[in-house]
Amino acid sequence: MFIPLLNKPVDTLRPAGSAISPSDWSILSNHWYPVAIARELLDAPLAVTLLDVDLVLFRGTDGSASAAIDACPHRHVRLSIGKVVDGQIVCPFHGLHFNQDGRCTYVPALGPRNNLPPSYKVRTFEVRERYGLLWTCIGEQPLEDVPLLPLIAKVPADELDYLAPEIWPVSAARQVENFIDIAHLPYVHAATLGGDQAAPIKPGRIEQQPDGVLMRANYVETNHGIRHCAYTYRVVLPFAIEFKVEVEGDADFMLESCDLPSPISAHQCKVFQILRYGGSREERAAMCGGLAMVNREDMVVLGAMRIPDLPLDQHHEIHLPVDNISNAYRGRLRDLGLGR
Ligand code: FES
Ligand SMILES: [Fe+2]
Known about the structure:
By secondary structure, the chain is α+β, with helices and mostly antiparallel strands. It has 2 domains: 22-136, 3-layer Sandwich (Rieske Iron-sulfur Protein), CATH 2.102.10; 155-335, Naphthalene 1,2-dioxygenase Alpha Subunit, Chain A, domain 1 (Alpha-Beta Complex), CATH 3.90.380.10. 17% of the residues lie in helices and 32% in strands. Strands 11, 12, 13, 14, 15, 16, 17 and 18 form an 8-stranded antiparallel sheet that branches. A 6-stranded antiparallel sheet has the order 1-10-9-4-3-2, with no helix packed on it. It is globular, with a radius of gyration of 22 Å. Residues 72, 74-75, 77, 91, 93-94, 96 line the site of FE2/S2 (inorganic) cluster.
């Protein structure tokens, strides 16, 4: 009913109820994550959640995007149910205006005056537009930039397809691990990719890189004829993947993609996927539809995981030789200081 008198307002951004530990939260919060497809942020504010922090995205008059805490500092109404007027976010309750720096510029109940105190502000965060997505970082010491993804960085926008982002019932780290796990393909994706469930799967070849881990692996898909595929996965820490498929004997085949799970909370992520597929408009649409089905197959299994957190101590699970990529990934997450 009441916030007790003794409770002074806390200044930390991490919500007290977050299931992400304070130490992991402070490390993860310094990275940049995608929060929206850029073209989907138009004139209206957009609510998103990152690391349990509710944010509102809006565009200024110059078209640049900003993020602010999605709570008006006056009476804590969500700013995302307000509107954007002249590049400022306007609270629907008493009409306070906040600019892209978070400063309150107008209080209708005070009439026209411009000497509002500096405490009249909402906390804001920089937003960068990259690869057709909006990225933000809410940490105290933001990393220099969003992850470098050369596979899509220089591709003209009209050659890229964006799957509708979906919320997965699992941590971003588990989503990454699922994407790079080749042993699940003949089981979970029997109906889409196919494969021989009884055939041994050779562990991929792993290369450590400054910003992550690269793995090359072979897989035989069986549902579109027999396709001998070479898969290349490049995991960029903490939660981004570049993925490329080459098909033996088919030099024209081109599928390159990025899988970018954005951590909503400890146990949910919003997955952005960008695709570059060589083909007609119809073939590209069919490929997007096929990958959406693959995602749905994954979500069923991941939703049934009894521990949605990713263990960083190897003793919690048993491991197969083909899990070498996930073990390398876990090692790199430990190196970041996570899981302490
Ligand atoms: S609650 Fe936002 S203006 Fe009063
Ligand atoms: Fe999968």
